[in-house]
């Protein structure tokens, strides 16, 4: 596996993901589990976030203590399923800024088409963490990161729940500099571009639209 792939195998994440895959799981439960997993993945993806020292007063004395500057982080949600990852990430880094990229997959060609793009100002000072639960063909992820790179963020990481091997290969061929954090790498894509065994359409399951 490429050193740029961080397979997050923590048992809590794996357990919750198994529950999410079950076809009879309710929308409410699916969303809650995704929220919990995103908090745990946030812990992993922010592991080497830079800290700076500030002076504080404890009840006993003055000390120098580390803090992170959450405002320097931008969570970039790929609409619409990326929204399912946002709440959990924001629970852990509440000061983060949020960007959105709207892409849809052309059902015939599976190519990503952009319909929305909005980032905070001063991206060159920020670390971007791109969120999309499913890295399937990789076309949306590649297009999103292509576009994001035009804003010149300090760094980019990509977080997903499930990936197909084909999607990971496509993503790395186009963005070898961007690390991917993933909870599970499934067997393959089917003829409709779905990850199998997978968990179905993440957007529909998060929003209860099917
Ligand atoms: N998007 C999804 O929501 N599910 C897949 O399996 C592939 C892409």
What does this structure look like?
The structure is a single chain. The protein has one domain: Rossmann fold. The protein is globular, with a radius of gyration of 18 Å. Helices cover 32% and strands 31% of the residues. The chain has six helices and twelve strands. 35% of the residues are buried. It has helices at 11-21, 27-45, 83-92, 139-149, 165-174, 202-207; strands spanning 5-7, 51-57, 62-68, 73-79, 97-105, 112-118, 127-131, 134-135, 155-163, 180-185, 188-189, 195-196. The model has no long low-confidence stretch (mean pLDDT 94). Strands 1, 4, 5, 6, 7, 8, 9 and 10 form an eight-stranded mixed beta sheet that branches. It has a two-stranded antiparallel ribbon with strand order 2-3. Strand 9 (155-163), helix 5 and strand 10 form a beta-alpha-beta unit. It is α/β, with parallel strands linked by helices and 210 residues long. The structure holds uracil (URA). Uracil binds at residues 81, 134, 136, 194-195, 198, 201-203.
Can you describe this structure in just a few lines?
Its EC number is 2.4.2.9. The protein is of the alpha/beta class and 210 residues long.
Give keywords.
single chain, 210 residues, alpha/beta, Rossmann fold, eight-stranded mixed beta sheet, two-stranded antiparallel ribbon, 6 helices, 12 strands, binds uracil, glycosyltransferase, magnesium, UPRTase/APRTase, EC 2.4.2.9, GTP binding
Shape field = globular
- Average predicted confidence as pLDDT: 94
Q: From the structure provided, what is the oligomeric state, counting identical versus distinct chains?
A: single chain
Q: Which series of helices and strands comes N to C? A: EHHEEEHEEEEHEHEEEH
- Low-pLDDT residue intervals, each spanning 5 or more residues: none
Bound molecules: uracil
**CA-to-CA gap between the ends?**
35 Å
CATH structural class: Alpha Beta
Function: Catalyzes the conversion of uracil and 5-phospho-alpha-D-ribose 1-diphosphate (PRPP) to UMP and diphosphate.
Protein name: Uracil phosphoribosyltransferase
GO cellular component, one term: cytoplasm
Binding site for 5-phospho-alpha-D-ribose 1-diphosphate: 80, 105, 132-140, 201
């Amino acid at each position: 596996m490429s050193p740029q792939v961080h397979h997050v195998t923590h048992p809590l994440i794996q357990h919750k993901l198994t529950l999410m895959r079950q076809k009879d799981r309710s929308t409410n439960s699916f969303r809650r589990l995704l929220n919990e997993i995103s908090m745990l993945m946030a812990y992993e993806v922010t592991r080497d976030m830079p800290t700076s020292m500030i002076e504080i007063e404890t009840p006993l004395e003055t000390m120098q203590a580390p803090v992170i500057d959450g405002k320097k982080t931008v969570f970039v949600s790929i609409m619409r399923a990326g929204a399912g990852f946002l709440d959990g990430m924001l629970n852990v880094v509440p000061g983060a800024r949020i960007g959105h990229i709207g892409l849809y997959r052309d059902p015939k060609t599976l190519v990503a088409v952009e319909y929305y793009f909005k980032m905070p100002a001063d991206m060159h000072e920020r670390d971007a963490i791109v969120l999309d639960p499913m890295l399937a063909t990789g076309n949306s992820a590649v297009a999103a990161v292509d576009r994001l790179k035009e804003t010149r963020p300090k760094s980019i990481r990509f977080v997903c729940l499930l990936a197909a091997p084909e999607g990971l290969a496509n993503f790395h061929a186009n963005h070898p500099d961007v690390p991917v954090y993933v909870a599970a790498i499934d067997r393959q894509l089917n003829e409709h571009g779905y990850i199998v065994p997978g968990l179905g359409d993440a957007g529909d399951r998060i929003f209860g639209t099917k």
